[in-house]
Amino acid sequence: MVHIVTDPPSQTGGAAQQLLRLQNDFHARLAVETMHYLRGLQSALGPAAPGTVLVPRRGATLRATAEPGTQVRLHVEVANAQAVHCVVSPALSPLVAASGVTWFAAANVDPPYLLIAPGETEAAALDIAVPAALPAGDYRGVLLMHGAPDGVPVTIRVGSTPTKKAVATKRPAKASAAVRKTPGTARKATARRPGGTTS
Amino acid sequence: MTAAEFTANDDPKGHARTTRSLVASFAARLGALGYVSGGDAIGSHLAGIGALGKRVSATDEGSRLRTALARGLAGNNGQALWQALKVDTWLSGMPPSAVLDELRNDLAVLLAEDLDEVLETPPGSNAVPTATLAPAEPIGFLDVMVGLWAWGRELSTAVEVAAGQPSLSLGVVHDLRVDGPPVDGPLLR
Protein backbone atom coordinates (compact mmCIF):
# COMPACT_ATOMS: atom_id res chain seq x y z
CA MET A 1 0.00 0.00 0.00
CA VAL A 2 1.32 3.39 -0.92
CA HIS A 3 0.53 6.33 1.26
CA ILE A 4 0.50 9.68 -0.40
CA VAL A 5 1.36 12.29 2.11
CA THR A 6 0.05 15.71 1.40
CA ASP A 7 1.10 18.86 3.03
CA PRO A 8 -0.90 19.94 6.01
CA PRO A 9 -3.56 22.50 5.25
CA SER A 10 -1.58 25.25 6.74
CA GLN A 11 1.15 24.80 4.11
CA THR A 12 -0.96 24.31 0.97
CA GLY A 13 -2.23 27.76 0.30
CA GLY A 14 0.67 28.77 -1.82
CA ALA A 15 1.56 28.84 -5.46
CA ALA A 16 1.63 25.05 -5.85
CA GLN A 17 -2.04 24.65 -5.01
CA GLN A 18 -3.00 27.47 -7.29
CA LEU A 19 -1.00 25.88 -10.09
CA LEU A 20 -2.77 22.57 -9.55
CA ARG A 21 -6.14 24.26 -9.62
CA LEU A 22 -5.26 26.06 -12.82
CA GLN A 23 -4.11 22.79 -14.36
CA ASN A 24 -7.34 21.08 -13.38
CA ASP A 25 -9.38 23.92 -14.81
CA PHE A 26 -7.36 23.81 -18.01
CA HIS A 27 -7.88 20.08 -18.48
CA ALA A 28 -11.59 20.34 -17.74
CA ARG A 29 -11.95 23.16 -20.23
CA LEU A 30 -9.89 21.27 -22.79
CA ALA A 31 -12.18 18.25 -22.48
CA VAL A 32 -15.28 20.38 -22.90
CA GLU A 33 -13.91 22.19 -25.93
CA THR A 34 -12.72 18.96 -27.51
CA MET A 35 -16.16 17.40 -27.13
CA HIS A 36 -17.71 20.54 -28.55
CA TYR A 37 -15.35 20.43 -31.53
CA LEU A 38 -15.99 16.74 -32.16
CA ARG A 39 -19.73 17.28 -31.93
CA GLY A 40 -19.40 20.10 -34.43
CA LEU A 41 -17.51 17.84 -36.82
CA GLN A 42 -20.09 15.11 -36.36
CA SER A 43 -22.96 17.44 -37.09
CA ALA A 44 -21.35 19.23 -40.02
CA LEU A 45 -22.83 16.68 -42.39
CA GLY A 46 -26.06 14.80 -42.11
CA PRO A 47 -28.49 12.81 -44.21
CA ALA A 48 -29.65 14.82 -47.19
CA ALA A 49 -33.33 15.75 -47.38
CA PRO A 50 -34.04 16.67 -51.01
CA GLY A 51 -36.31 19.68 -51.09
CA THR A 52 -38.58 21.67 -53.36
CA VAL A 53 -37.90 25.15 -54.71
CA LEU A 54 -40.85 27.23 -55.88
CA VAL A 55 -39.84 29.40 -58.81
CA PRO A 56 -42.28 32.18 -59.80
CA ARG A 57 -43.49 32.05 -63.41
CA ARG A 58 -45.99 34.89 -63.31
CA GLY A 59 -47.23 37.34 -60.74
CA ALA A 60 -44.18 38.28 -58.73
CA THR A 61 -46.45 40.52 -56.65
CA LEU A 62 -50.09 39.97 -55.71
CA ARG A 63 -52.23 43.12 -55.73
CA ALA A 64 -55.91 43.62 -55.03
CA THR A 65 -58.30 46.44 -54.28
CA ALA A 66 -61.26 46.14 -51.93
CA GLU A 67 -63.67 48.15 -49.85
CA PRO A 68 -64.23 47.61 -46.14
CA GLY A 69 -66.84 44.93 -45.52
CA THR A 70 -66.13 43.07 -48.74
CA GLN A 71 -63.97 40.14 -49.68
CA VAL A 72 -60.78 39.74 -51.69
CA ARG A 73 -59.78 36.60 -53.55
CA LEU A 74 -56.19 35.80 -54.53
CA HIS A 75 -55.05 32.78 -56.53
CA VAL A 76 -51.90 30.66 -56.39
CA GLU A 77 -51.10 28.07 -59.02
CA VAL A 78 -48.23 25.59 -58.80
CA ALA A 79 -46.96 23.25 -61.52
CA ASN A 80 -44.96 20.28 -60.28
CA ALA A 81 -41.84 19.77 -62.42
CA GLN A 82 -40.37 17.20 -60.01
CA ALA A 83 -40.35 13.44 -60.44
CA VAL A 84 -42.39 12.78 -57.29
CA HIS A 85 -45.37 14.32 -55.49
CA CYS A 86 -44.84 17.70 -53.88
CA VAL A 87 -46.86 19.55 -51.26
CA VAL A 88 -47.61 23.26 -51.12
CA SER A 89 -49.52 24.98 -48.31
CA PRO A 90 -49.76 28.76 -48.78
CA ALA A 91 -50.17 31.01 -45.76
CA LEU A 92 -50.56 34.76 -45.48
CA SER A 93 -48.57 36.95 -43.14
CA PRO A 94 -50.19 39.80 -41.18
CA LEU A 95 -50.72 42.86 -43.40
CA VAL A 96 -49.38 46.21 -42.31
CA ALA A 97 -50.30 49.70 -43.51
CA ALA A 98 -47.96 52.66 -43.60
CA SER A 99 -50.02 54.21 -40.80
CA GLY A 100 -49.02 51.37 -38.49
CA VAL A 101 -52.31 49.49 -38.58
CA THR A 102 -51.71 45.74 -38.52
CA TRP A 103 -54.39 43.60 -40.13
CA PHE A 104 -54.52 39.95 -39.11
CA ALA A 105 -56.39 39.00 -42.21
CA ALA A 106 -57.59 35.47 -41.35
CA ALA A 107 -57.29 34.27 -44.93
CA ASN A 108 -59.29 31.20 -45.84
CA VAL A 109 -57.09 29.08 -48.12
CA ASP A 110 -59.03 26.62 -50.27
CA PRO A 111 -57.62 24.01 -50.34
CA PRO A 112 -55.00 24.65 -47.64
CA TYR A 113 -52.95 21.58 -48.59
CA LEU A 114 -52.05 21.10 -52.24
CA LEU A 115 -50.76 17.64 -53.06
CA ILE A 116 -49.48 17.83 -56.61
CA ALA A 117 -48.60 14.79 -58.69
CA PRO A 118 -45.57 14.90 -61.00
CA GLY A 119 -46.29 16.91 -64.14
CA GLU A 120 -49.58 18.27 -62.85
CA THR A 121 -50.74 21.74 -61.90
CA GLU A 122 -53.00 22.66 -59.00
CA ALA A 123 -54.36 25.93 -57.70
CA ALA A 124 -55.54 27.36 -54.40
CA ALA A 125 -57.69 30.39 -53.67
CA LEU A 126 -57.20 32.73 -50.74
CA ASP A 127 -60.38 34.44 -49.58
CA ILE A 128 -59.69 37.41 -47.38
CA ALA A 129 -62.57 39.14 -45.61
CA VAL A 130 -61.94 42.89 -45.27
CA PRO A 131 -63.31 44.10 -41.90
CA ALA A 132 -65.85 46.89 -42.14
CA ALA A 133 -63.91 48.91 -39.57
CA LEU A 134 -60.56 48.60 -41.35
CA PRO A 135 -59.05 52.05 -41.99
CA ALA A 136 -58.27 52.89 -45.59
CA GLY A 137 -54.75 52.36 -46.86
CA ASP A 138 -52.34 50.07 -48.66
CA TYR A 139 -51.80 46.93 -46.62
CA ARG A 140 -48.65 45.01 -47.38
CA GLY A 141 -47.67 41.50 -46.40
CA VAL A 142 -46.24 38.31 -47.79
CA LEU A 143 -47.70 35.07 -49.04
CA LEU A 144 -45.49 32.44 -47.45
CA MET A 145 -44.84 28.96 -48.82
CA HIS A 146 -42.22 26.38 -47.92
CA GLY A 147 -39.73 26.39 -50.78
CA ALA A 148 -40.13 30.10 -51.52
CA PRO A 149 -37.99 31.69 -48.79
CA ASP A 150 -38.86 35.28 -49.67
CA GLY A 151 -42.52 34.57 -50.31
CA VAL A 152 -44.71 36.59 -52.62
CA PRO A 153 -45.31 40.26 -51.76
CA VAL A 154 -49.01 41.01 -51.27
CA THR A 155 -50.57 44.48 -51.41
CA ILE A 156 -54.26 45.07 -50.73
CA ARG A 157 -55.55 48.59 -51.26
CA VAL A 158 -58.50 49.24 -49.00
CA GLY A 159 -60.78 52.15 -49.82
CA SER A 160 -62.60 54.31 -47.34
CA THR A 161 -66.20 53.72 -48.41
CA PRO A 162 -67.97 50.53 -47.35
CA THR A 163 -69.74 48.78 -50.22
CA LYS A 164 -73.51 48.48 -49.87
CA LYS A 165 -73.90 45.75 -52.46
CA ALA A 166 -73.36 42.29 -51.10
CA VAL A 167 -71.92 39.65 -53.38
CA ALA A 168 -72.44 36.01 -52.48
CA THR A 169 -69.37 33.84 -52.54
CA LYS A 170 -68.96 30.11 -52.77
CA ARG A 171 -67.23 29.77 -49.46
CA PRO A 172 -67.19 32.85 -47.28
CA ALA A 173 -64.18 33.37 -45.11
CA LYS A 174 -64.34 33.69 -41.37
CA ALA A 175 -66.54 36.55 -40.39
CA SER A 176 -64.20 38.19 -37.98
CA ALA A 177 -60.68 39.41 -38.14
CA ALA A 178 -58.59 41.19 -35.60
CA VAL A 179 -57.29 44.63 -36.36
CA ARG A 180 -54.60 46.13 -34.22
CA LYS A 181 -53.25 49.61 -34.35
CA THR A 182 -49.80 49.88 -32.92
CA PRO A 183 -49.42 50.89 -30.23
CA GLY A 184 -52.82 50.10 -28.81
CA THR A 185 -55.22 47.35 -28.03
CA ALA A 186 -56.81 44.82 -30.32
CA ARG A 187 -60.38 45.21 -31.39
CA LYS A 188 -62.72 43.02 -33.33
CA ALA A 189 -64.34 43.89 -36.60
CA THR A 190 -67.02 41.96 -38.41
CA ALA A 191 -67.25 41.59 -42.16
CA ARG A 192 -70.96 41.12 -42.76
CA ARG A 193 -70.97 41.66 -46.48
CA PRO A 194 -68.74 39.22 -48.25
CA GLY A 195 -67.93 40.05 -51.83
CA GLY A 196 -66.14 42.92 -53.44
CA THR A 197 -63.75 43.93 -56.14
CA THR A 198 -60.33 42.77 -57.02
CA SER A 199 -57.93 43.86 -59.65
CA MET B 1 -52.58 41.01 -60.38
CA THR B 2 -54.50 38.63 -58.15
CA ALA B 3 -52.86 35.40 -59.32
CA ALA B 4 -49.35 34.05 -58.92
CA GLU B 5 -47.97 31.03 -60.74
CA PHE B 6 -45.08 28.88 -59.60
CA THR B 7 -43.13 25.88 -60.75
CA ALA B 8 -42.00 23.35 -58.15
CA ASN B 9 -38.42 22.45 -59.09
CA ASP B 10 -35.60 20.47 -57.56
CA ASP B 11 -33.15 22.45 -55.48
CA PRO B 12 -30.20 23.15 -57.83
CA LYS B 13 -27.86 23.11 -54.83
CA GLY B 14 -29.12 19.81 -53.48
CA HIS B 15 -30.27 16.39 -54.55
CA ALA B 16 -33.08 15.91 -57.06
CA ARG B 17 -36.33 14.56 -55.64
CA THR B 18 -36.74 11.14 -57.15
CA THR B 19 -38.08 7.98 -55.58
CA ARG B 20 -34.56 6.60 -55.42
CA SER B 21 -33.08 9.69 -53.78
CA LEU B 22 -35.92 9.84 -51.26
CA VAL B 23 -35.47 6.19 -50.35
CA ALA B 24 -31.73 6.80 -49.97
CA SER B 25 -32.45 9.80 -47.76
CA PHE B 26 -34.76 7.73 -45.58
CA ALA B 27 -32.14 4.98 -45.31
CA ALA B 28 -29.47 7.54 -44.45
CA ARG B 29 -31.64 8.91 -41.66
CA LEU B 30 -32.09 5.43 -40.26
CA GLY B 31 -28.38 4.69 -40.61
CA ALA B 32 -27.37 7.93 -38.91
CA LEU B 33 -29.17 6.82 -35.76
CA GLY B 34 -26.39 4.32 -35.20
CA TYR B 35 -23.76 7.05 -35.10
CA VAL B 36 -25.34 9.71 -32.93
CA SER B 37 -26.59 9.64 -29.38
CA GLY B 38 -30.26 9.58 -28.59
CA GLY B 39 -29.96 13.03 -27.11
CA ASP B 40 -28.44 14.41 -30.29
CA ALA B 41 -31.10 12.77 -32.45
CA ILE B 42 -33.96 14.07 -30.36
CA GLY B 43 -32.32 17.47 -29.97
CA SER B 44 -31.76 17.87 -33.68
CA HIS B 45 -35.35 16.88 -34.41
CA LEU B 46 -36.74 19.27 -31.78
CA ALA B 47 -34.48 22.04 -33.06
CA GLY B 48 -35.93 21.41 -36.52
CA ILE B 49 -39.43 21.64 -35.09
CA GLY B 50 -38.44 24.92 -33.44
CA ALA B 51 -36.98 26.29 -36.67
CA LEU B 52 -40.24 25.41 -38.42
CA GLY B 53 -42.14 27.15 -35.63
CA LYS B 54 -40.13 30.31 -36.21
CA ARG B 55 -41.12 30.37 -39.87
CA VAL B 56 -44.73 29.56 -39.12
CA SER B 57 -44.81 32.36 -36.54
CA ALA B 58 -44.45 34.79 -39.44
CA THR B 59 -47.83 33.71 -40.82
CA ASP B 60 -51.16 35.10 -39.70
CA GLU B 61 -52.28 31.90 -37.96
CA GLY B 62 -48.90 31.23 -36.44
CA SER B 63 -48.53 34.72 -35.03
CA ARG B 64 -51.97 34.51 -33.43
CA LEU B 65 -51.14 31.19 -31.82
CA ARG B 66 -47.79 32.40 -30.61
CA THR B 67 -49.25 35.57 -29.13
CA ALA B 68 -51.98 33.62 -27.36
CA LEU B 69 -49.44 31.18 -25.96
CA ALA B 70 -47.15 33.96 -24.80
CA ARG B 71 -50.01 35.67 -22.95
CA GLY B 72 -51.27 32.56 -21.20
CA LEU B 73 -50.14 30.64 -18.15
CA ALA B 74 -48.98 27.67 -20.19
CA GLY B 75 -46.63 29.81 -22.24
CA ASN B 76 -45.15 31.51 -19.20
CA ASN B 77 -44.74 28.24 -17.31
CA GLY B 78 -43.21 26.57 -20.33
CA GLN B 79 -40.66 29.30 -20.83
CA ALA B 80 -39.79 29.31 -17.12
CA LEU B 81 -39.36 25.54 -17.11
CA TRP B 82 -37.17 25.57 -20.19
CA GLN B 83 -34.96 28.33 -18.84
CA ALA B 84 -34.60 26.61 -15.48
CA LEU B 85 -33.63 23.31 -17.09
CA LYS B 86 -31.63 25.02 -19.87
CA VAL B 87 -33.61 23.22 -22.57
CA ASP B 88 -33.45 26.29 -24.80
CA THR B 89 -29.66 26.40 -24.41
CA TRP B 90 -29.45 22.73 -25.39
CA LEU B 91 -31.67 23.08 -28.46
CA SER B 92 -29.99 26.31 -29.55
CA GLY B 93 -26.74 24.37 -29.99
CA MET B 94 -28.24 21.58 -32.08
CA PRO B 95 -28.31 21.55 -35.91
CA PRO B 96 -31.98 21.67 -36.89
CA SER B 97 -33.29 18.80 -39.00
CA ALA B 98 -35.32 19.59 -42.11
CA VAL B 99 -38.43 18.13 -40.51
CA LEU B 100 -40.95 19.43 -43.05
CA ASP B 101 -38.93 18.30 -46.06
CA GLU B 102 -38.46 14.89 -44.45
CA LEU B 103 -42.18 14.53 -43.80
CA ARG B 104 -43.14 15.55 -47.32
CA ASN B 105 -40.46 13.30 -48.79
CA ASP B 106 -41.75 10.34 -46.81
CA LEU B 107 -45.26 11.01 -48.09
CA ALA B 108 -43.95 11.21 -51.66
CA VAL B 109 -42.27 7.81 -51.22
CA LEU B 110 -45.53 6.32 -50.00
CA LEU B 111 -47.30 7.65 -53.09
CA ALA B 112 -44.56 6.69 -55.57
CA GLU B 113 -45.63 4.27 -58.27
CA ASP B 114 -42.08 3.05 -58.95
CA LEU B 115 -41.15 2.15 -55.37
CA ASP B 116 -41.10 -1.60 -56.01
CA GLU B 117 -38.76 -1.12 -58.93
CA VAL B 118 -36.45 1.10 -56.88
CA LEU B 119 -36.33 -1.35 -53.98
CA GLU B 120 -35.57 -4.28 -56.25
CA THR B 121 -32.71 -2.65 -58.13
CA PRO B 122 -29.56 -1.88 -56.15
CA PRO B 123 -28.35 1.71 -56.11
CA GLY B 124 -25.65 2.68 -58.58
CA SER B 125 -23.19 3.53 -55.83
CA ASN B 126 -22.83 2.96 -52.13
CA ALA B 127 -22.42 6.65 -51.42
CA VAL B 128 -24.60 7.93 -48.63
CA PRO B 129 -26.47 11.08 -49.62
CA THR B 130 -25.30 13.75 -47.26
CA ALA B 131 -25.76 17.48 -47.02
CA THR B 132 -24.36 20.26 -44.92
CA LEU B 133 -26.65 20.66 -41.96
CA ALA B 134 -28.23 23.97 -41.23
CA PRO B 135 -26.38 25.97 -38.58
CA ALA B 136 -27.79 26.00 -35.09
CA GLU B 137 -30.03 28.92 -34.25
CA PRO B 138 -31.64 30.23 -31.07
CA ILE B 139 -34.67 28.10 -30.27
CA GLY B 140 -37.17 28.94 -27.55
CA PHE B 141 -40.17 27.27 -25.99
CA LEU B 142 -42.69 29.16 -28.12
CA ASP B 143 -40.81 28.26 -31.31
CA VAL B 144 -41.13 24.58 -30.49
CA MET B 145 -44.79 24.89 -29.48
CA VAL B 146 -45.77 26.60 -32.73
CA GLY B 147 -43.60 24.18 -34.68
CA LEU B 148 -45.24 21.18 -33.05
CA TRP B 149 -48.63 22.58 -33.95
CA ALA B 150 -47.69 23.11 -37.59
CA TRP B 151 -45.81 19.83 -37.92
CA GLY B 152 -48.57 17.89 -36.21
CA ARG B 153 -51.19 19.34 -38.50
CA GLU B 154 -49.11 18.52 -41.54
CA LEU B 155 -48.46 15.02 -40.22
CA SER B 156 -52.13 14.24 -39.65
CA THR B 157 -53.00 15.52 -43.12
CA ALA B 158 -50.22 13.44 -44.67
CA VAL B 159 -51.46 10.30 -42.94
CA GLU B 160 -55.02 10.99 -44.08
CA VAL B 161 -53.83 11.47 -47.63
CA ALA B 162 -51.74 8.30 -47.50
CA ALA B 163 -54.80 6.42 -46.27
CA GLY B 164 -56.87 7.85 -49.10
CA GLN B 165 -59.17 9.57 -46.63
CA PRO B 166 -58.32 13.25 -46.83
CA SER B 167 -60.18 15.39 -44.38
CA LEU B 168 -63.20 17.05 -45.87
CA SER B 169 -62.37 20.22 -43.98
CA LEU B 170 -59.02 20.41 -45.70
CA GLY B 171 -60.39 19.69 -49.15
CA VAL B 172 -57.26 18.01 -50.46
CA VAL B 173 -57.17 18.16 -54.22
CA HIS B 174 -56.23 14.61 -55.05
CA ASP B 175 -58.53 11.68 -54.48
CA LEU B 176 -56.14 8.77 -54.06
CA ARG B 177 -58.70 6.29 -52.77
CA VAL B 178 -58.39 2.81 -54.10
CA ASP B 179 -60.57 -0.19 -53.50
CA GLY B 180 -59.40 -2.08 -50.43
CA PRO B 181 -60.06 -5.67 -49.43
CA PRO B 182 -63.71 -6.68 -49.04
CA VAL B 183 -64.98 -5.88 -45.57
CA ASP B 184 -66.95 -9.12 -45.37
CA GLY B 185 -63.92 -11.37 -45.82
CA PRO B 186 -63.39 -14.39 -43.57
CA LEU B 187 -60.87 -12.64 -41.31
CA LEU B 188 -63.41 -10.06 -40.29
CA ARG B 189 -66.20 -12.45 -39.39
Describe the model:
- The complex is a heterodimer of chains A (199) and B (189).
- With 199 residues, chain A is mainly beta.
- Helix content of chain A is 14%, strand content 42%.
- Chain A has a domain at 62-164 and 173-184: Immunoglobulin-like.
- Chain A has one helix at residues 15-42; strands at residues 45-47, 52-58, 62-66, 71-80, 86-88, 91-92, 95-97, 101-104, 108-110, 114-116, 121-129, 137-145, 148-158, 176-181, 186-190.
- In chain A, the strands form three sheets. In chain A, strands 3, 6, 7, 8, 12, 13, 14 and 15 form an eight-stranded mixed β-sheet that branches.
- The longest helix of chain A is centred in the N-terminal third of the chain and has 28 residues, at 15-42.
- Chain B has one domain (19-167).
- In chain B, helix 1 packs across helix 6 (99-110), helix 2 (38-56) packs across helix 8 (141-162) and helix 3 (60-71) crosses helix 8.
- In chain B, 32% of the residues are buried.
Q: Top keywords for this entry?
A:
heterodimer; A: 199 residues; mainly beta; Immunoglobulin-like; 8-stranded mixed beta sheet; 3-stranded antiparallel beta sheet; 1 helix; 14% helix; disordered C terminus; B: 189 residues; mainly alpha; 8 helices; 2 strands; globular
